[in-house]
Amino acid sequence: MKNVGVAILGLGVVGSGTYKILRDHREFYRQTQGVDISVESVLEINKQKALALGIEESKISDNIAEVVSNPNVDIVVEVIGGVEPAKSFVLAALHSGKSVVTSNKELFCKYWHELERAAKRTNAGLYFEASCVGGVPIIRTLIDGMQANVITDLTGIINGTTNYILTRMTREGADYATVLKDAQALGYAEANPSADVEGYDAAYKLSILSSLAFHTKVPLDKVYREGISGIKAQDIAYGDELGYVLKLLAIGKNGGKGVEVRVHPAFIRKDHPLASVNDSFNAVYLKGDSVGDIMLYGRGAGDFPTGSAIVSDVIYAATHNDVKYATFKNGAQAEPGMKFITDFRSRYYIRFTAKDKAGVLAKVAGIFAKYNISIVDLIQKGEDCENIPIILITHETNEYSVRRALDKIAALEDVVSVDSMIRVEA
Ligand code: HSE
């Protein structure tokens, strides 16, 4: 039987989960995969943490050079996160000809081209299933399950922290700050939550997923990004009255005229399959020209879910001699001539506060008409108040037209404030 040695860089939540899966399933993988996978080395400065997991002292190191030069190590698992020192460690492993398995979305989305170049030089494998949507096998689905298709749409809830926060705001009518505090106390959100709540984490993942789905490099700077920190409980409630649920969506489209990639909060109909993806769960919805619509659902984070994705890559690396790299020219930038659509089309939920006076709505409607924006629904809330909230939903229109119209509406004398603009996607 083939013996394969693994090194794990970092024994945090995901590294520890990965170690336990490999340790507890060793015999199972011998039987089902025909390979004996052993953890031969761990890079961890906290020796006690490694010893507490039952790792032999001789296999614990705090020196990356020692780990990557270990002849018993064939595959290096990087679960440190962030760019440095993870990048230098991954490159050191690839330069030594070791295959690398990583869960690091930020590193991968920013330096995929550089890592792939290094891997090709030594014919090493480079695997990243765990970088996107944790335990949900989306990368392998895109590479090995959907290759028959031209994929035109990818829509996902790919950040668990924000989905947890929005789910609780929806269920409880609670405001953002209160739920964020709870999410931090429960360990869902980090002490510095900005990577999640401002949409960076989802943007890293969308850059990777849309590159694979559309077979063209989609660099991070092409992803439009907006987070959830400005979301108000009252907009979630008004959306609910209109039949919508609010989610932080990652949207990739390739309709033939160019690629469109964006992460932002969006209303979706309550009967859309993504509407029932709640709490910290993730899901990705794909449209392929042959298969039609498919949806993958599961846990996007955590020790065992993300460990599951890592170990599946380890098994793949241990049992395949062929190495698959990106299907497109993998440079730092998009390929020359590649078009990205920034003036995308959507429907819009708009809330503004106006003086309760005759003629205000006519002026607002006139501005929308000037920008060729057609209104589907308009609701005036409150009675007998000086200032009243007005909510409207538009037909599909262009993003830039809406932004220009809202600037003009905000400048009207009888409009107190333009409070919210939320895209309505399905
Ligand atoms: N922090 C991420 C989330 C998990 O909340 O989904 C890792 O990407």
Structure notes:
- This protein is an alpha/beta fold and 426 residues long.
- The chain has three domains: 2-131, NAD(P)-binding Rossmann-like Domain (Rossmann fold, 3-Layer(aba) Sandwich), CATH 3.40.50; 139-298, Dihydrodipicolinate Reductase, domain 2 (2-Layer Sandwich), CATH 3.30.360.10; 345-424, Alpha-Beta Plaits.
- It is built from 15 helices and 17 strands.
- Strands 7, 8, 9, 10, 11, 12, 13, 14, 15, 16 and 17 form an eleven-stranded mixed beta sheet that branches. It has a six-stranded parallel beta sheet with strand order 3-2-1-4-5-6, with helices on both faces.
- The N and C termini lie far apart (51 Å).
- It binds L-homoserine (HSE).
- Residues 105, 159-161, 196, 201, 300-301 line the site of L-homoserine.
List the helices and strands and how they pair.
Blueprint: E1 2-9, H1 13-24, H2 26-33, E2 35-43, H3 47-52, E3 60-61, H4 64-68, E4 75-78, H5 86-95, E5 99-102, H6 105-122, E6 126-127, H7 138-145, E7 151-157, H8 160-172, H9 176-185, H10 194-197, H11 200-214, E8 224-225, H12 233-241, E9 244-254, E10 259-269, E11 281-288, E12 292-299, H13 303-319, E13 345-355, H14 360-370, E14 375-380, E15 387-394, E16 397-398, H15 399-410, E17 415-424
Parallel strand pairs: 1-2, 1-4, 2-3, 4-5, 5-6, 8-10, 10-17
Antiparallel strand pairs: 7-9, 7-11, 9-10, 11-12, 13-15, 13-16, 13-17, 14-15
Helix pairs in contact: 1-13, 5-6, 6-11, 8-9, 14-15
The site of L-homoserine has 8 residues, from helix 8.
